[in-house]
Amino acid sequence: MTEDLRALLRADLYAERPPPLGDVVGAAIRDGRRLRRKRRLGVFGTFAAMIALAGVGAVVLRDGPVAVRPQAPAALPPQNVPAAPATAPMAALKARTLTVHSGTERADGNRTKATSGAMLVLMLQLLPPGRTSHYGVAADDDLHVQLSLDDGRGPAMIRVAVARNAPVGDKPPGAAFVTISEHSADCRLGTTVDAQWPDGTLVEVDLPACPGRPALTPDEAVRLAADPRWGVTMAEDLVAEGTQRFPAVPVLG
Amino acid sequence: MMTDDDEFAEFANAHAERLRNTAFMLCHDWHLAQDLTQTALTKLFLSWRRAVQADNLVAYAQKILLRVWLDHRRRRSSTESTPGVLHEPAYRESHELRLTMLDALAQLPARDRAIVILRYFEDYSVEQVADVLELPVSIVKSQTRRSLTKLRELLAADQLALFAG
């Protein structure tokens, strides 16, 4: 009898036409890493405390506030400028995923092991104008940084993490596969934008939506996440500038 | 040398399809099955170092999946009715519409459905089912008997003949 039952179960399953499995494993890994980092950093409490302190203007971190300069695409080598965000219509951002072509798989030039300081430098280059503060980096060797951006509407947190997965073979070179996720049920998660590169580099931008609103618009977040200069190795000049400008940044956790 | 994340990815890629099939057998909804599988894999990722110490990693993953599904059922239970009987009498009376095993399974309570699927779809032993669902072996045995009786009652005549054989 049990064999018949097994046969019936399998026959029913085989009669189904399952949809493609999709990137369920990649999505699980991205979510898992995000949750792991949040656990490790105790991020919710830290974020709430920072906002509360920012409200009374009582925090002065070692690095102090930094004015973000407007992006100057002309200053970058042409191959380093992500082309699609500048031309992609907003309608494209309504999709859950999009492909951002950079014209190069990785930025040119000598690269060395990335540092939190280099990540902060690159963030400041890519963010829209505003006053930044509350820099923080993860402990250990985690490439995970955060800062608060105030564009005149109040401070809001931005976090960027970089990791390296196994190379992805089925994606076109010179393009990042970007996923925009809205966590409407939990404002602490807000919006996340993941950029996956063919070489396995994964850039995650987290934009909590409370209190207030996400620090960046979706197209700004895509532009930040899909810049080809992110990586577990980064340009030597970025690393050198990071060492100079951010010799010591508060460690979160 | 493979990292923990690499090992997880290798395992997950090898078993995601099977997990989704199990999830589909439980919920009879491919989209929900996909969500349940992703949630289960995320939880497995977070507990990977502990998971790899398990005797049977696949069973460990199935255990997480079942808990995710049972949690999902519990969350829904306050807003949706639990199917205890066939919703449309005509469905059972029509010879044109055959009740499939999946339809019949859907009439079982969530835990009983899980027992049947683990026992007869995943080929788990009674002891393994008891371990995955954290139930006494005696409960698994008795619920299995009741579930099979219920399935016999529900299934259409052509499939009932298979049972009798």
From TrEMBL, chain A:
<keyword id="KW-0472">Membrane</keyword>
<feature type="transmembrane region" description="Helical">
    <location>
        <begin position="41"/>
        <end position="61"/>
    </location>
</feature>
<keyword id="KW-0812">Transmembrane</keyword>
<protein>
    <submittedName>
        <fullName>Uncharacterized protein</fullName>
    </submittedName>
</protein>
<keyword id="KW-1133">Transmembrane helix</keyword>
Automatic annotation (TrEMBL), chain B:
<dbReference type="InterPro" id="IPR039425">
    <property type="entry name" value="RNA_pol_sigma-70-like"/>
</dbReference>
<dbReference type="InterPro" id="IPR013325">
    <property type="entry name" value="RNA_pol_sigma_r2"/>
</dbReference>
<dbReference type="InterPro" id="IPR014284">
    <property type="entry name" value="RNA_pol_sigma-70_dom"/>
</dbReference>
<dbReference type="Pfam" id="PF04542">
    <property type="entry name" value="Sigma70_r2"/>
</dbReference>
<keyword id="KW-0238">DNA-binding</keyword>
<dbReference type="InterPro" id="IPR007627">
    <property type="entry name" value="RNA_pol_sigma70_r2"/>
</dbReference>
<protein>
    <submittedName>
        <fullName>RNA polymerase sigma24 factor</fullName>
    </submittedName>
</protein>
<dbReference type="GO" id="GO:0016987">
    <property type="term" value="F:sigma factor activity"/>
</dbReference>
<dbReference type="GO" id="GO:0006352">
    <property type="term" value="P:DNA-templated transcription initiation"/>
</dbReference>
<keyword id="KW-0805">Transcription regulation</keyword>
<dbReference type="Pfam" id="PF08281">
    <property type="entry name" value="Sigma70_r4_2"/>
</dbReference>
<dbReference type="InterPro" id="IPR013249">
    <property type="entry name" value="RNA_pol_sigma70_r4_t2"/>
</dbReference>
<keyword id="KW-0804">Transcription</keyword>
<dbReference type="GO" id="GO:0003677">
    <property type="term" value="F:DNA binding"/>
</dbReference>
<dbReference type="InterPro" id="IPR036388">
    <property type="entry name" value="WH-like_DNA-bd_sf"/>
</dbReference>
<dbReference type="InterPro" id="IPR013324">
    <property type="entry name" value="RNA_pol_sigma_r3/r4-like"/>
</dbReference>
<feature type="domain" description="RNA polymerase sigma factor 70 region 4 type 2">
    <location>
        <begin position="101"/>
        <end position="151"/>
    </location>
</feature>
<keyword id="KW-0731">Sigma factor</keyword>
<comment type="similarity">
    <text>Belongs to the sigma-70 factor family. ECF subfamily.</text>
</comment>
<feature type="domain" description="RNA polymerase sigma-70 region 2">
    <location>
        <begin position="13"/>
        <end position="78"/>
    </location>
</feature>
